[in-house]
Description:
Elements: E1 10-12, E2 15-19, E3 33-35, E4 39-42, E5 57-62, E6 65-75, E7 78-81, H1 85-88, E8 112-114, E9 125-129, E10 134-137, E11 150-151
Parallel strand pairs: 2-9
Antiparallel strand pairs: 1-2, 1-11, 3-4, 4-7, 5-6, 5-8, 6-7, 9-10
Amino acid sequence: xxxxxxxxxxxxxxxxxWSSRNARPQHSxxxxxxxxxxxxxxxNMAMQSWGNITNIEIVxxxxxxxxxxxxxxxxGANIVMQTPGWTYTGTSPTxxxxxxxxxxxxxxxxxxxxxxxxxxxSPGMWYLNRATGYLYYIxxxxxxxxxxxxxxPVLEKLIDANGxxxxxxxxxxxxxxxxxxxxxxxxx
Length: 188
């Protein structure tokens, strides 16, 4: 299946599918990662041989936040994260309670790595190779990919409207007949 897009979710037969990752959120997290000023040091030397390094994301679940940042490069045990994402993982746009929970949460550990073909291991998992545009998927038992309906959202925002300021907001705007389908985020 060919696709050129960024993604976060995929649906088959209206069921959400997991992108390729080394551990689902409810399972134990990988060990062997130490935070550095530019990313991480890892004991997982196999990661440097994974394809499409810049498509891999490091994810950390921390209370109610899920922090993620794409990888820029891997050399030996050194993982360098992409900027400005790495810089922004430790900042909060509205510091103070209740907006940032118990203070600013930074990407200080690894819950899982995501979006690498090498992590594609279980039925229901998928991987999008952005370089080639191919979507790889391991069907669940009983799924027939010949007649499957697959939804891979490509829009994060349908409409982006901004007022001049808090005292001059946009107004008198009406939306009618908009239907949202399963997506990463459906926001106006």
